[in-house]
Design brief:
The chain is mainly alpha-helical. It has 23 helices and four strands. Helix 5 (166-175) packs parallel to helix 7, helix 7 (196-205) packs parallel to helix 9 and helix 19 (381-395) runs parallel beside helix 21 (411-422).
């Protein structure tokens, strides 16, 4: 019992001694409260008072606020800076990067010189750009569109300031895409985007920076969406200068609609029928192929070009239509026949031949052989005979008409051609030659009647009324002789009802 009391008394004595020593030194060793005197910190203070714009400060200090790193709650404690201006300060540094000097805070909307003067002794800013929060920065960043060496912070500079807010950066990239001058600039700018949508929008707006079709292709290949890729190719068609450029753009298209649209719109760049055919062959839809060939007919310069276009058609109607339009490019009967032989429909073939005869108006078909060649190429006999009849009226020669009549199928047509030839006979011998080929006696009589102008008549033995067969020969059998029995003759004319 005494031993315990002795120990307790000893402890109490030691406590009193320590207290007396502490009071003599001016501090309480058991007091955890620290008294802070502004501007009078010792060298051991890890957060010395700010003496310059670039000095670091205690983020929890109640004297200076780092406007580059301070949270909203700390900014609100500054005089005149409430929740609204605190949000404005945070938005500004996210958009344009950290403040370079404390005075830059006046760039924030709502903060003027007056408010700055009220808080300038209470704020500071860490070194501008010392903290890089861009999720896609650095040589080993995670930007899905970074180049082989990755994106660096310098890629996100705008007007000399680093932009760390991804959405703000994307907005600026889109707004200024049309200002880019080269395809490489457009592609590099798109790689800085924070999303595939923004990336594609930059490429689409910057396609005008492309100088030729090859650069348009490069820009389109950088697009993420196939739809945007096709839109870039269509927009870049005005950079095409030749049919080869059009083919290059069409081959890069994803959808058949875009491919064929580029080919159709690029048709004006084709300079020959061969180039038109090349464009048509790249079409993915048969109807579009035929449309290109039909519209490209204006590039044809010869019958060979027309045949080349027609042979590439998918539909029979398109093929035959091109051939019929190509008749006007014919230079001979042989050209017309070649075109007709390429027709896929028999009616189209005959129509082409008739059109060829009507169009040339005798300027190319100048002998019976030409008309016979055309008639032989016809499918219908009626078409053949019509061609021969037209030829007989144009050639104006008895011998040519005789040659045409020999090819006629209908006897009526043969006789009609011979009668036409009689009008152009130059002597009686040609008349006899035509008459001998006539099928009907009626046609023969008409031919001889036309030949009467040469002074000839029916040749011996051919007059149907010669050689005693005349029912009214000059004999007494005439029921109306010159005298006696005519009831209306003689002096007794009082009975003539018509006197």
């Amino acid at each position: 019992m005494r031993k315990n009391l002795l120990i307790t008394s000893l402890c109490l004595f030691l406590f009193l001694c320590i207290s007396v020593v502490g009071q003599s030194a001016g501090t309480n060793p058991f007091d955890d409260t620290v008294t802070v005197t502004p501007g009078k910190r010792t060298n051991s203070d890890p957060y010395p008072t700010n003496t310059g714009s670039g000095a670091k400060t205690d983020p929890y200090s109640n004297t200076l606020v780092d406007i580059n790193t301070a949270p909203k709650a700390q900014l609100e404690k500054l005089p005149g800076i409430g929740p609204v201006l605190a949000d404005a300060i945070i938005s500004y540094r996210r958009t344009y990067g950290p403040f370079k000097t404390p005075r830059d805070i006046v760039k924030v909307d709502g903060i003027g010189e007056g408010k700055y003067n009220a808080i300038k002794n209470m704020i500071t800013c860490s070194a501008a750009g010392s903290s890089n929060t861009d999720p896609y920065s650095g040589s080993g960043g995670t930007d899905p569109y970074a180049g082989s060496s990755g994106n660096s912070g310098s890629n996100y500079m705008w007007n000399g300031q680093s932009i760390f807010d991804v959405s703000a950066r994307d907005r600026l990239l889109i707004e200024n895409a049309h200002l880019l001058r080269t395809a490489a600039d457009v592609i590099n700018s798109s790689r800085q985007a924070g999303s595939t949508v923004v990336r594609d929008e930059i490429l689409l707006r910057g396609v005008l920076a492309a100088r030729d079709a090859n650069e348009v292709i490069q820009i389109s290949r950088s697009a993420y969406s196939s739809d945007v890729r096709d839109r870039i190719l269509k927009a870049g068609l005005n950079r095409a200068r030749t049919a080869d450029d059009v083919l290059l753009l069409a081959q890069g298209a994803f959808s058949s609609t875009t491919c064929d649209s580029i080919l159709l719109n690029g048709l004006s760049l084709a300079v020959s029928a061969a180039e038109v055919v090349r464009l048509a062959q790249r079409c993915r839809v048969a109807d579009n192929k035929d449309e290109i060939l039909s519209k490209g007919f204006s590039k044809a310069r010869s019958v060979d070009d027309v045949i080349l276009l027609s042979q590439s058609c998918y539909k029979t109607t398109t093929c035959d239509s091109i051939l019929q339009n190509g008749v006007r490019l014919s230079r001979s009967a042989g050209d017309i026949v070649r075109l007709s032989q390429k027709c896929r429909g028999t009616d189209a073939r005959d129509s082409l031949l008739i059109a060829g005869v009507a169009l040339n108006s005798g300027s190319l078909l100048n002998n019976s052989s030409d008309y016979i060649a055309l008639s032989n190429a016809a499918y219908k006999t009626s078409t053949r005979d019509e061609i021969l009849k037209t030829g007989s009226k144009r050639l104006k020669s008895a011998s040519e008409c005789l040659a045409l009549s020999n090819r006629a199928n209908a006897t009526v047509v043969r006789d009609e051609i011979l009668i036409t030839g009689a009008q152009y006979a130059r002597n009686y011998d040609e008349i006899k030659m035509l008459a001998n080929r006539a099928y009907s006696t009626t046609a023969r009589d008409r031919i001889y009647a036309i030949g009467a102008k040469f002074g000839g008549g029916y040749p011996s033995g051919t007059d149907p009324y010669s050689g005693g067969s005349d029912p009214y020969p000059p004999s007494s059998n005439d029921p109306y002789p010159s005298s006696g029995t005519d009831p209306y003759s003689g002096s007794n004319n009082s009975t003539d009802p018509y006197r």
